[in-house]
Specification:
heterodimer, A: 500 residues, alpha+beta, Phosphorylase Kinase, domain 1, 3 domains, 6-stranded antiparallel beta sheet, two-stranded antiparallel ribbon, 10 strands, 48% helix, B: mainly alpha, Rna Polymerase Sigma Factor, Chain: A, two-stranded antiparallel sheet, 10 helices, elongated, disordered N terminus
């Protein structure tokens, strides 16, 4: 079994090269079976460790994301020995636990992790495995979440996992899952959460069917409240769905969990471009298109969730993932009352407002939504004393729209006309500070007649398309005008607060 | 047909022949998903991204015959990125009809001397990931299922060698041998793919 002499380098190399058959292959294999040194030498000859890590990370990244190009089937094929649908392999998880846990104090338990006695494996969520445990010091049941075994060597995955924990830990709110402590044992990150007795909203609705209106409004208000806390920390959850909302039976409260995809607004996005993170059905239109998202994306997902609670079905359903994305992005949802006629007009309006395709048309913050739902709950409890609040109409229906149009026209005019003249004279344009322009325009146009500017705006539009055509033929630096207009639009949206 | 000594035998050379279906299939397996993802990341809908991807590939097919190796040019990848970027921009400005006809030929094929301007980090990363995926699939088809399983379960799934060995009825030594061989194959194939498109090209209109 043990040999003092290891296998010569050239024999190892020939084994790997597969060119010339190695005469003593059987002996070599026997030696390698027990000799860790030669095992490592062999692997090192195959590829250096940094290449191997890079390969594993890249392939694991593929496994982490939803692969929408289903015609690929690469992921399914590559993992052939894994059973499809198994998110985790019980045996592998148990072994990973055995490696890092200390022996249990009770014979029926699985082991000890820190001061927590681990009882059983509850299941799998996000990138991790959830275990049931008991905190010996504080004497209370806990949930321990740990990274999946197959990701335990993947640096990127571990970073994401740690980020999930940090994201949730940063938010202290009764409707957001509390994180008690983030630790690491033998390189495996894990953290502790309170054990919520109860099921997820998803399970609840699947068992009981659509919920009564008061329940829905109450749940919506609590989720909005939790989201407001997360948003105020600069976090967007990005994966609001019924499976991520736990219902705590004992205190009649819901808790937002699984911040696995949450992202701080200032952080570098970890997913590479082209990957869509998150569950499909509850995604916002901007998420499906991979565009920049903000807190209002969570509100859309919440709208889909409330729809599900009221109707028992999701608002956007299709056989294929691409079908779902198309519906979310392009098609109007069916009125929730076609599924459940008992839903009030007010609740239907709230859902419609949350499910607006354009984020600017939704409730603009979780706080706004929470306030509204609180008023509505008060009305539901005392219908005669408090009147039902009215869902504010979309921005686009307001008078502000007329004002915004002609101010935008003014902005564009102010920038385009100099550009146009510069183009004619072949000169270079320096950027005019938008703040200066804005002040001038505000003074100049605010008192004028909206109609006159509507016509000026249409004139401007045709001017721009003419410019575009000419530009394509003449100017090597193309697209500058269109890009500038896009930038203007964005600047303008930021300036909107100056409007009243 | 013998190639001149200083021309490295590569995929890019092969796809100059539009009838080399195998080469084109291999080319597309790497580049099609790559271009598609770039399109999607710029905000395109799935159906449009599919169409624009086809247009980009067609454009490559058109222009590739006039490519020749030249150190003063840019990498094939850089050229590909520029084409994709331009076509995506054109799509948003004009709509996708006749993208191919109106492709701005004068600008797209003029390279900046600095290759970093033509390639972009996202493209590089995406490209590498795509190569890994495609190569993995290829190598998987080349080796016995048992060999692949020995590699995948230990290297990717990080399972213990003993348990994989008993499951596959191989000795642990045989598992290590299989694993190392697959790793070596993967590394060599990836290296080949990556180096193929590292070469420098210029677009020479004087060529037939």
């Amino acid at each position: 079994m043990k040999q003092n002499i290891h296998i010569p380098e050239q024999d190892l190399q020939r084994v790997i090269d597969e060119n010339a058959p190695v005469a003593n292959q059987a002996e070599i294999e026997t030696h390698i079976s027990d000799c860790e040194i030669c095992q490592n030498r062999l692997l090192a000859l195959a590829a250096d460790p940094s290449w191997r890590s890079q390969f594993i990370e890249n392939m694991s990244d593929n496994l982490l994301h939803t692969d929408l190009d289903r015609s690929d089937h690469t992921l399914d094929e590559l993992g052939k020995t894994k059973n499809k649908g198994d998110e985790y392999d019980l045996e592998t998880v148990s072994r990973m636990l055995e490696e890092i846990m200390l022996p249990p104090t009770h014979p029926e338990m699985l082991g000890c992790l820190g001061r927590n006695e681990i009882e059983s494996i509850i299941g799998c969520g996000g990138m991790g495995v959830v275990l049931r445990g008991y905190d010996r010091d504080l004497q209370r049941p806990v949930a321990v979440k740990m990274i999946l075994p197959r990701l335990s060597k993947n640096g990127t995955a571990k970073q994401r996992f740690a980020r999930e924990a940090r994201a949730a830990a940063a938010v202290l709110h009764p409707n957001v899952i509390a994180i008690h402590g983030i630790e690491e044992t033998d390189g495996i990150p894990w953290f502790v959460m309170p054990l919520v007795m109860g099921s997820s909203l998803g399970e609840l609705v699947r068992e009981q069917g659509p919920l009564p209106e008061k329940e829905i409004v109450r749940i919506g208000m609590q989720i909005a409240s939790g989201l407001a806390a997360a948003h105020s920390q600069g976090l967007v959850h990005r994966d609001i769905k019924p499976e991520n909302i736990l219902v705590d039976n004992r205190v009649n409260r819901v808790v937002i969990t699984d911040f696995g995809l949450a992202r701080r607004e200032s952080e570098e996005p970890m997913t590479q471009t082209g990957y869509l993170a998150g569950t499909l059905n509850y995604m916002s239109p901007e998420q499906t298109r991979g565009l920049d998202i903000d807190a209002r994306s969570d509100l859309f997902s919440l709208g889909s969730l409330l729809y599900f609670l009221a109707a028992g079905v999701v608002p956007f359903q299709s056989e294929s993932p691409m079908g779902v994305l198309h519906l979310i992005s392009q098609e109007q949802h069916a009125d929730v009352r076609t599924h459940n006629p008992d839903v009030s007009k007010t609740l239907a309006n709230v859902i419609d407002r949350l499910l607006e395709k354009d984020p600017d048309d939704r409730f603009q913050s979780a706080v706004d939504l929470e306030t509204f739902l609180a008023e509505y709950i008060a009305h539901l409890h005392h219908p005669t004393q408090k009147s039902a609040p009215v869902v504010p109409t979309r921005r686009s229906k307001n008078r502000t729209f007329a004002i915004t149009t002609f101010v935008l026209a003014g902005l564009v005019l102010a920038v385009c006309i100099p550009l146009f003249w510069n183009w004619w004279s072949g000169g270079q344009t320096g950027p005019v500070p938008l703040e200066t322009q804005w002040t001038d325009i505000k003074q100049q146009y605010q008192l004028s007649d909206p109609d006159a500017f509507q016509s000026e705006f249409s004139q401007l539009r045709s001017q721009i398309s003419t410019l575009d055509q000419m530009e394509t033929q003449q100017m090597p630096e193309s697209r500058s005008l269109s890009t500038q207009i896009d930038e203007l639009q964005r600047e303008f949206n930021r300036f909107e607060k100056y409007l009243d | 047909m013998k190639l001149p000594a200083d021309t490295r035998y590569s995929l890019i050379e092969k796809i100059k022949n539009p009838r080399d279906a195998e080469a084109w299939h291999e080319f597309a397996s790497i580049y099609q998903p790559l271009i598609f993802k770039i399109c999607c990341s710029r905000g395109m809908q799935h159906a449009d991204a599919t169409d624009v991807t086809q247009d980009v590939l067609a454009r490559i097919a058109q222009a590739i015959e006039q490519f020749r190796y030249d150190q003063s040019g840019a990498t094939f990848r850089g050229w590909l990125y520029r084409i994709t970027r331009n076509m995506v921009a054109d799509f948003f400005r004009k709509g996708k009809k006749d993208l191919l006809q109106h492709a701005d030929r004068t600008t797209e094929l003029r390279f900046d001397k600095d290759p970093a301007r033509d390639e972009c980090r996202e493209f590089q990363i995406e490209f590498q990931r795509q190569v890994f995926t495609v190569v993995a699939r290829q190598v998987q088809n080349q080796v016995k299922p048992q060999t692949w399983a020995a590699f995948w379960e230990t290297e990717m799934e990080n399972r213990h060698v003993e348990s994989v060995a008993s499951e596959l009825e191989m000795t642990p030594g045989a598992i290590y041998v299989a694993r190392s061989r697959v790793i070596a194959r993967l590394r060599k194939e990836v290296q080949k793919r990556l180096s193929e498109t590292d070469q420098f090209f210029v677009h020479d209109e004087s060529m037939p």
